[in-house]
């Protein structure tokens, strides 16, 4: 980093700094003249958008932390004080709570874009894996953050999720006691959650740095899924993508502001405006929307695995659900090795494209199922059955469809270069 | 002479260096472990949390057929003064057909009093059925609204995703109308 050749800057102050610590050279190289495929579509905006949301969350989070009190007797009231008395407190809190949702929107689009265009394939496997790590850290941070206002959903969400670990054989109960720092979700739990909620965003920031570093080593994928071959295939990052990212970001922020200012509680749950009560469980516990597909997978497993007609059970229904839920994300880690098809982009893989679009529909359906009560019925079908079917497709996509397509799928003819693909597209338009 | 010494060192020194490296690494690992354990253990329940681990309850105001909820270790504990019919129902169940096989006798000190931790063994919600008028589920005990587990009049799981019966805490009768939980 920066030990290579360096061009002189005209500005003497910049030159003085750069000759001692080449930060300007680094920025120029990685964000100025950095060559990027010239055929990005707007799906390629969401990495930058996610980065902006991360910074938004950290900045609003730090000022909120100055007003928040992490104690079971005071937490709920301190949040209400932020809403009513603290200057701009209502705005900062709504920016933070809706910011989490919009961070997840950006990241989900970013992830599914990577799946559609084969961005996880070699040589970008590690880049992809770091991305999955970021997603897991985000889930942990968001879950912990949701506990802090100490409303009913905070308390019961924390209870249900920490109890997942009790499904583990033998070590389950001691682990849950250790997580709680007591015998139920209580003040020690709230305190440590606050400490971790302050820490994890900076861990995310560090992994994002590695993610971007890895990206700049192998370069961006693109909608055609073929590597740039000549200078004709690329443009410099600045000004072409700085302006395209800014343009997309503005649209995204308009949508974000609509929620922050006009529907700030739309994505939340009214139950979280009731202070936490360990004696009363809300009738319907639901996680935040961004966890719903995984929550549906957790609930879909209602059967146990053991030797039939005996009492011997290897995996209880509870443990099975937990394994399925974590497994659903763990599969993303090995996706580069489940899909070994040499062609990246779904544009040239008609079968993969169809199955992938089904996966997205399946994922949204799981989200809907997760939002409903466990015994809900839709069009005369119990939702629990539909949850099981959708879960089965989700796992089949990764474990059966991807490996089979890797071997069998015939592809459309790939263009010779990105440049050719762009020209062909322009010709068909005119 | 100098040459001989170098060769000497190489022949003997390599194994000696290996030994030193292994020993240093082993001591390093023990050192890191001994520093890491306090950091891990600090997250376990503190002494004041442990000190709050018993609760005494006066049973005299509870009428037959009535239940109350008390707090113990931050968790709800259900105490039900069971009716004759409820006791009979709990006893008459065929134990071998249960999800978590326990007879009623194993779960009580005195037949009239059922004391169970009011936490669903599925994912930790508080089942309803303690207060008058609440749904008691298909087996007359408790019903967990979160994921639909039904418990009977002995607090045993009968239907739904929960894997175990409602836990029975350690408790003792200090007198006929007073118990100590924990």
Summarize the structure.
The complex is a heterodimer of chains A (430) and B (182). Chain A is mostly helical and 430 residues long.
Instruction: Name the shape of chain B in a single word.
Output: elongated
Chain pair forming the biggest interface? A-B, 33 and 27 residues
Structural class by helix and strand composition of chain B: alpha+beta
What coarse outline of chain A follows from CA principal-axis ratios? globular
- Give a short account of the largest sheet of chain B: 3 strands, antiparallel
Q: How widely separated are the two ends of chain B?
A: 79 Å
Radius of gyration of chain A: 24 Å
Strand order across the largest sheet of chain B: 1-9-8
What do these coordinates show?
The complex is a heterodimer of chains A (430) and B (182). With 430 residues, chain A is mainly α. Chain A has 2 domains: 23-34 and 41-281, Cytochrome Bc1 Complex, Chain C, CATH 1.20.810; 286-430, Cytochrome Bc1 Complex, Chain C (Up-down Bundle), CATH 1.20.810.10. In chain A, 63% of the residues lie in helices and 3% in strands. Chain A contains 16 helices and 6 strands. In chain A, the strands form 3 sheets. Chain A has a two-stranded antiparallel ribbon. Chain A has a two-stranded antiparallel sheet with strand order 3-4. In chain A, strands 5-6 form a two-stranded antiparallel ribbon. In chain A, α3 packs antiparallel against α9. Chain B is an alpha+beta fold. Chain B has 2 domains: 2-41; 50-181, Rieske Iron-sulfur Protein (3-layer Sandwich). Chain B is 30% helix and 24% strand. Chain B has helices at residues 2-41, 47-51, 84-92; strands at residues 55-58, 67-72, 75-81, 113-117, 140-144, 149-152, 157-159, 171-175, 178-181. A 3-stranded antiparallel beta sheet of chain B has the order 1-9-8, with no helix packed on it. Chain B has a 3-stranded antiparallel beta sheet with strand order 2-3-4, with no helix packed on it. Chain B has a 3-stranded antiparallel beta sheet with strand order 5-6-7, with no helix packed on it. In chain B, a hairpin with a 4-residue loop joins β5 and β6 (149-152). The longest helix of chain B is centred in the first third of the chain and has 40 residues, at 2-41. Chain B is elongated. Chain B starts with a helix and ends with a strand. The mean pLDDT of chain B is 85. At the A-B interface, α7 and α8 of A face loops of B.
């Amino acid at each position: 980093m920066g030990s290579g050749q360096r061009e002189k800057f005209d500005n003497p102050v910049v030159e003085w700094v750069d000759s001692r610590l080449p930060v300007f050279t680094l920025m120029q190289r990685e964000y100025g003249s950095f060559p990027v495929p010239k055929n990005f579509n707007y799906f390629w905006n969401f990495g930058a958008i996610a980065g902006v949301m991360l910074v938004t969350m950290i900045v609003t989070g730090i000022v909120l932390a100055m007003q928040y009190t992490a104690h079971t007797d005071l937490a709920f009231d301190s949040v209400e004080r932020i809403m009513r008395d603290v200057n701009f407190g209502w705005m900062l809190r709504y920016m933070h709570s809706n910011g989490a949702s919009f961070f997840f929107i950006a990241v989900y689009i970013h992830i599914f874009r990577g799946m559609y265009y084969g961005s996880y394939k070699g040589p970008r496997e590690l880049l992809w894996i770091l991305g999955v790590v970021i997603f897991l850290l985000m889930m942990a941070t968001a879950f912990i953050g949701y506990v802090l206002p100490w409303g009913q959903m905070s308390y019961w969400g924390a209870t249900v999720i920490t109890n997942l670990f009790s499904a583990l054989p033998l070590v389950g109960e001691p682990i849950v006691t250790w997580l709680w720092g007591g015998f139920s979700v209580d003040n020690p739990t709230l305190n440590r959650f606050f400490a971790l909620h302050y820490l994890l965003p900076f861990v995310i920031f560090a992994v994002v740095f590695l993610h971007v570093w890895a990206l700049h080593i192998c370069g961006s994928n693109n909608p055609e899924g073929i590597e740039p071959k000549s200078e004709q295939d690329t443009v410099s990052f600045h000004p072409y993508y700085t302006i395209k990212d800014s343009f997309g970001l503005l649209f995204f922020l308009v949508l974000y502001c609509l929620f922050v200012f006009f529907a700030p509680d739309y994505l939340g749950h009214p139950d979280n405006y009731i202070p936490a009560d360990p004696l009363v469980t809300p009738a319907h516990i639901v996680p935040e929307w961004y966890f719903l597909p995984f929550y549906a997978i957790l609930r879909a497993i209602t059967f146990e695995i053991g030797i039939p007609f005996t009492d011997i059970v290897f995996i209880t229904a509870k443990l099975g659900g937990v394994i399925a839920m974590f497994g659903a994300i763990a599969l993303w880690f090995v996706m580069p090795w489940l899909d070994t098809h040499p062609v990246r982009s779904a544009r040239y893989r008609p079968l993969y494209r169809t199955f992938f679009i089904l996966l997205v529909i399946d994922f949204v359906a799981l989200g809907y199922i997760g939002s409903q009560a466990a015994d809900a019925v839709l069009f005369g079908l119990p939702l629990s059955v539909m949850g099981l079917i959708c879960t089965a497709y989700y796992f089949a996509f990764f474990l059966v469809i991807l490996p089979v397509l890797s071997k069998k799928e015939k592809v459309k003819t790939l263009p010779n270069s990105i440049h050719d693909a762009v020209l062909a597209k322009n010709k068909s338009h005119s | 002479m100098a040459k001989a010494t170098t060769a000497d060192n190489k022949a003997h020194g390599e194994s000696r260096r290996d030994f030193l490296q292994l020993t240093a690494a082993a001591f390093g690992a023990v050192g890191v472990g001994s520093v890491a354990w306090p950091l891990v253990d600090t997250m376990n329940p503190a002494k004041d949390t442990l000190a709050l681990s018993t609760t005494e309850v006066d049973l005299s105001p509870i009428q037959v057929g009535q239940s109350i909820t008390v707090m113990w270790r931050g968790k709800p504990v259900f105490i039900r003064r069971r009716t004759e019919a409820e006791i009979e129902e709990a006893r008459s169940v065929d134990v071998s057909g249960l999800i978590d096989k326990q007879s009623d006798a194993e779960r009580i000190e005195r037949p009239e009093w059922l004391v169970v931790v009011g936490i669903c063994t599925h994912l930790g919600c508080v089942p309803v059925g303690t207060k008058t008028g609440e749904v008691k589920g298909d087996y007359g005990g408790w019903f967990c609204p979160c994921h639909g587990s039904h418990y009977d009049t002995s607090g045993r799981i009968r239907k739904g995703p929960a894997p175990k019966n409602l836990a029975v805490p350690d408790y003792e009768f200090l007198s006929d109308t007073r118990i100590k939980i924990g």
